[in-house]
Amino acid sequence: MMAMTKGLEGIVATESSISSIIDDKLTYAGYNIDDLAQNSSFEEVIYLLWNKKLPTKSELDQLKSDLAKEMSIPQHVVEHLKSYDLSTVHPMAALRSAVSILGLHDEEADVMEDEANQRKAVRIQAKISTVVTAFARIRKGQEPVQPKENLSFAANFLYMLNGEEPKDLEVEAINKALVLHADHELNASTFTARVCVATLSDIYSGITAAIGALKGPLHGGANERVMQMLTEIGDEDKAIDYIKEKLENKEKIMGMGHRVYETGDPRAKHLREMSSELTKITGNSKWYNMSVKIEEFIKENKGLPANVDFYSASVYHSLGIDHDLFTPLFAVSRTSGWLAHILEQYQDNRLIRPRAEYVGPKNQTYTPIEER
Ligand SMILES: CC(=O)SCCNC(=O)CCNC(=O)[C@H](O)C(C)(C)COP(=O)(O)OP(=O)(O)OC[C@H]1O[C@@H](n2cnc3c(N)ncnc32)[C@H](O)[C@@H]1OP(=O)(O)O
Ligand SMILES: O=C([O-])CC(=O)C(=O)O
After folding, report:
1. pLDDT (mean) for 221-246
2. Are 126 and 351 in contact (CB under 8 A)?
3. 335 CA distance to ligand 2 centroid (A)?
4. Catalytic site residues (predicted)?
5. Which residue's alpha carbon is nearest to atom 8 within ligand 2?
6. Is any ligand 1 atom within 6 A of the Cβ of residue 244?
7. Residue 3's pLDDT is what?
8. Does domain 222-318 have CATH number 1.10.10.10?
9. Which of 23, 57, 135, 172 is the most buried if burial means most Cβ atoms within 10 Å?
């Protein structure tokens, strides 16, 4: 058997033409993330990830209209969201369960033809932000807000969350965040989705499994913990002492470090810029200043770069988004990548089944229970 690599570090487990990380540069289907972050809409990125080419105007209009038609969620799903223990259930747990329930209401859930899978991809992508925002409102005792067909995906997210049409700057920030989080090669949640559907299980199962993986604090769950850390620190002048103590206790600093990037995560600078701008506008520059201090300290003392989760925290906080909705918002975006990978996996499938090196006891003799 081959040598074991803990955490599968450096192991190439599949071919893919969706996104790449080479020399610390991230591309979606060959387009650099910096270009996409500056210029593209999230809908364009969805099209790009699913089709490996930028859409023409009519192709983009078609996708937007398909998504708009599918954004509403069945009343059963709303009733389900209402039935959770609203004071304790984390929105990521609610989302994981709700996506699974969406599958129960999709007659095509187990139809494996390509066209049915593409229709389901549109349905899931369209409904995911409706589920997140509906849950966010329901737990505050508010009714879900129906999406508006004339709004962009990013604008609809904020509209359904807050019940009022967002300002241009807010839409721009959410759109950029959605573009930046959409795909990232074979990260843990995407790998989870691919492992799941490689058994020829259905798309809803793949997305449900991926949400479960994204939820963890070493992955998407880090963005909520970054804000928790900044809140705990509270004051710029206390940041370095706080971090030193965490490091002395061998605790990890959330939003720092990455399995693949060595010099830095190319997405972080876009979020850093947004954080600087938005925290200034909202009169809360301390969150940005504190983040810069932490980033510089960790870079200097541990050689670790900030990852995508680090500055997204102060960006989302400045937009007034509840801290436990940060990871669900990540999921809304990453669903586009998960779906692209699931469809790619189906196209050239083989069961994913690695080996484990057995290190337990050998040659044991069975003893009857009365003799143990
Ligand atoms: C969207 C995303 O998923 S981006 C990642 C989001 N996750 C986080 O921000 C959580 C914090 N970061 C981490 O836990 C890690 O850097 C990960 C999970 C991202 C990458 O992990 P790995 O590649 O497995 O690195 P690993 O955890 O083995 O760390 C290697 C060394 O760097 C240290 N290290 C890595 N990240 C950090 C951190 N954030 N804070 C402090 N030390 C760290 C480890 O303690 C370890 O040190 P040691 O060799 O002295 O024991
Ligand atoms: O690629 C990873 O390991 C984690 C990450 O940054 C992402 O999923 O965006």
Report:
1. 97
2. no
3. 13
4. 258, 309
5. 187
6. no
7. 83
8. no
9. 135
Residues of the chain with CATH 1.10.230.10: 222-318
Q: How far apart are CA 101 and CA 81, in angstroms?
A: 10
In which residue ranges of the chain is CATH 1.10.580.10 found? 17-166+184-216+331-347
> pLDDT value at position 1?
73
| Structural tokens at position 113 | 């033809």
Distance in Å, CA 218 to ligand 1 centroid: 8
Give the pLDDT band (50/70/90) at residue 158. very high
Ligand 2 and 308: CB distance under 6 A:
yes
Tens digits of residue pLDDT in 209-227: 999 999 999 999 999 999 9
Contact 188, 220 (CB under 8 A): no
| Closest C-alpha residue for ligand 2 atom 3 | 187
User: Ligand 1 centre and the CA of 42: distance in Å?
Assistant: 29
Ligand 1 near 256 CB (within 6 A)? yes
Distance from the CA of 255 to the center of ligand 1, in angstroms?
Answer: 9
Q: What does the pLDDT look like over 294-319, one tens digit per residue?
A: 999 999 999 999 999 999 999 999 99
Ligand 1 and 229: CB distance under 6 A: no
256: β partners: 306
Ligand 2 probe mutation, 11, 20, 187, 260, most atoms within 8 A of CB: 187
Q: Could you give the CA distance from residue 172 to residue 41 in angstroms, rounded to a whole number?
A: 9
Catalytic residues: 258, 309
Whether 308 lines ligand 1, by a CB cut-off of 6 Å, is yes
**Global pTM?**
0.98
- Let me know if domain 17-166+184-216+331-347 sits in CATH 6.20.20.10: no
Residues 6+ apart with CB under 8 A from 136: 91, 161, 322, 325
